[in-house]
Amino acid sequence: MKKLLPVLFIFSLSPLTTMSQSTETKWLQEWLGAWEMVHQLLQLPAGQPPEMVFYDDTFVYTTSAVTAPAASRIEGPGMYGKPLPWRKARHNDTLMLPDGQRVPVGLMSFAASTPAGNSFFVMAAPSFWEAAGVASSEFSLNKMLTGVFLHEFTHTRQQKGFGRQVDSIERAHTFTDIPLTDDIVQGYFKADSEYVRQFREETDAFYTAAFAADRQQAEGSVRKGLSLLKARQAKYFTGNKTVLEKLDGIFLSMEGLGQYMAVYWLVQPNGGNTSREAAISGFRRKRNQWSQEEGLAMFLALARLKEHDWVKDQFSERPQTIVELLEQAVR
């Protein structure tokens, strides 16, 4: 997809399975190391590594034989305790993706699936982002890009759950006015000032819960947010827009968890070592991507109320939406 904690953890991270690394791909070691850290802290089950495609202005670094079939093997980091088949080749300004599509080299970071249903991941190297003038006012470019990586890489673990649900909806419905992306609800209603007002009030209630001083206040704010959300959906998702209710829950879950995983790493002393306020502010950015903005608030509120056992559910083949998880948390 396009895409705190009340307690901080200090721990001893077991090393990545890796061969000797050149400074050329040090950033890749750091990004996958951040994923391993989050994976271990949240006690997530090991998954099948997706095929990965990273690139700078000259070379592609990939584990995909489709992307670089004739490339020589290079040393690189492993994942989940196992080595990965890294390759390096000149890309000549185009990339062959693992799903067979050829695309021009540009500023990209996304997860997707092959026709066989296997996840793959694509992202530009830090030098590419820096050359494009990307920066963050809250923290360094490296920290910001690690967070972006974590957000989008989270989606590779959601493909067999929420991703398949979206595919099923797309097969059953025709979307002509607004394309089916995580911004579809925003696309329909961004020009409706009353809808926007209600959405902002609802989102504020979840952020109030996330920053609540005590559990009673947190639960009350979550109940308010859920009530406003249900009222909004009942009022606006009618007629040929009833399908938006399911999509709203899915994309709040996918984009919200991606944002949450970035913030989670940023506040770890052995991770981004960033203050909670700066981490949240940095990933809210302009607050103009609705599914990310409200989704983050909802997961922060959930973390305020429950231990992290719900993260495993989000990576299952039949995950619950963040709406359902919050409803259960305040029963």
Structural commentary:
- The protein contains 12 helices and 8 strands.
- By secondary structure, it is α+β, with helices and mostly antiparallel strands.
- Strands 3-4-2-1-8-7 form a 6-stranded mixed β-sheet. It has a two-stranded antiparallel sheet with strand order 5-6.
- Strand 7 and strand 8 form a beta hairpin.
- Helix 6 runs antiparallel to helix 7, helix 8 packs across helix 9 and helix 10 packs parallel to helix 12.
- The longest helix has 25 residues.
- It is globular, with a radius of gyration of 20 Å.
- The protein starts with about 25 loop residues before the first helix and ends with a helix.
- The N terminus is likely disordered.
Poorly predicted segments: 1-21
Strand line-up of the largest beta sheet? 3-4-2-1-8-7
Tell me roughly what share of residues is in helical segments: 40-55%
Put simply, the count of helices is 12
Number-wise, the strands total 8
Q: Give helix and strand order, one letter per element, not per position.
A: HEEEEEEEEHHHHHHHHHHH
What overall geometry do the principal axes of the alpha carbons give?
A: globular
Cα radius of gyration in angstroms: 20 Å
Largest sheet: 6 strands, mixed
Strand coverage percent = 5-15%
Distance between the termini: 31 Å
Helix/strand structural class: alpha+beta
Average predicted local confidence, pLDDT:
91
